[in-house]
Amino acid sequence: MNMVKPIQVNEKKVLGFANLYRTGRKAPVWEQALVTIWFFVTYLPLDGVTPIRYLMVAYFIGIAGMYYRDVLPVVLKAWPLFLLPILGLLSFMWSDYPSEAIRSGVLMLLTPLTIVVIGARLNTRQVLRCLMFAGIMTAIYAVPSISTFAIGGPYGSGAKNLLAIQMLFAMLLSLATALNQKEFLWIRLVAAPFVPICFVFQYMAHSATSLVFAVVGIVGLLTVRYLWMSIGRIRHLRTSILMASVTLALTAAVVVLNMPENTIEDDFLNMLGKDSTFSGRSAIWREAALVSQENPVWGVGLESFWQYDVGAAQTLNENDFKPFGTKLSFHSSFWEVRVHLGIVGLSLFLLIIGWCSYRTLWSWFRTPTMDTSALVITAVIILTSTFTESYLWSTFNTLVNLLYFGAVTTLGAGKRVFQGRVPVIIQEAS
Prior knowledge:
By secondary structure, the protein is mainly α. The protein has 17 helices and 3 strands. It has helices spanning 29-43, 50-66, 68-77, 80-90, 98-121, 124-142, 160-179, 185-191, 194-204, 208-231, 237-257, 264-271, 281-294, 311-319, 333-366, 370-385, 398-408; strands at 2-8, 13-23, 416-427. Strands 1-2-3 form a 3-stranded antiparallel beta sheet, with no helix packed on it. A hairpin with a 4-residue loop joins strand 1 (2-8) and strand 2. Helix 2 (50-66) packs across helix 5, helix 6 (124-142) packs across helix 7 (160-179) and helix 7 (160-179) runs parallel beside helix 10. The protein is globular. The mean pLDDT is 85. Residues 197-350 form the O-antigen ligase-related domain.
C-alpha cells in the first residue's frame, strides 16, 4: 500500500487513503505441479520422456488458447522474445537442411511461448518454487551416478559443465527460497538442506567457473537479504550505495587496465584451471569467424553447420578428438547466432538480452524482494556464461527459462494491479 496525502484528525490520529494493489494471482496446486514436471523434464534429458514433453507443449498451447485474454497481452508486450525465433523459422529458405531447420525453428518459437504462458498463469514466487523443486528432483535423480560427476553424471560423458551449471541454479534457487521470509515455512525447510547438497554436487563436477559463480551468487543473495533489504528504510541510501559501487568498480577497472605488464587475466584463468585459449574454445571461435564472413547478413541457416557432410565441422571434431558426425557447439551463444542467422540474427539476439536485462533490473529496483533479487543474480550469471557457453542458444533449458521469466513476470500474473483506494487511520504510538 502507498499512502497519499493524509488528513490530520487530531493530535494523535491521521486519516489517509492508501493505494491498494494486488500482486498477481495464485495458480492452483495441480497447475504448479504440471509446471514443475515440465521444468524437470527440461532440466534433465531423460530417456523415454519425449511423449511427456510433447504432451506438456500441447498443454501450454491449449492454455494459451483457453486463457487468450490473459496470455495474448503478455505475448504482445514480450514481442522482443519472438523476433529471433521467427527469423530462425524462416531460415529454412536458405538452410541446406530445410526440414531440420523448420523443426528447430518451431522449438525456438515454442520456448518463449511456454514461458509467457507460465508467466501469465503463475506469479513470480510460484514459478521460482517450481524451478526449485525441479532442481531438487534433478539432484535426487543424479545420486545413483554420483561416482561419475567428474565426467557429466546423468548428463552423459563430457557434460560436466552442464551438470555443474544445473546444480548451481538448483542451489541458488534453494538458497533464495530458504532466505525468503514470505515463503511457506515447510517449503523453506525442504529447500535448506539442498543448498549444501547441490553445492557439493557442483563441486564434484570439477567446474571451477561454476564454482566462482556459486560463490558470487551466495554472497549476492546473502547481501540482499541481510543488507540491501534493510537499508531500504533509509531514503535514497540504496541509490547512493549503488552509485558509489559503480564508481568504485569503474575506477578499479581503469587502474588495473593501465597497469604495465598486467597479468591479472592470465592469473585468474590459471586459478580456474584454464588458459588464454579458454580450453581450446578460441580455435572454434576462429572457425566461427571464418564461416560468418562467408555468410555475413543472414548466416547459413539453422542446422546447416554441425552436419556430417560439412568439412569445417568435421575438422573441428577431429581436432577435438570427437567421433565423426558429432554435433558440437561454438561454446558461445553470440557465435552460434552469428554463424546460423548472421548479423540480422545477432542484432535480434542482442535486443533480447538488452530487453530481458532492462525488465529484470527494473522489476528489482521497483520491488527489491528475494524473488526479484534471485532473478537478477541468476540473470547476471547467465549473461556472463553466454560468452563461453551456448546455453542461451538452446531451447527449453533452465537458463533460458530463468532469463525470459525474469523479463515477463511483471507483465503477467506477477504484475501489480491497482485495486483502488482504501481509508486508513494512523495513530501515534503512546
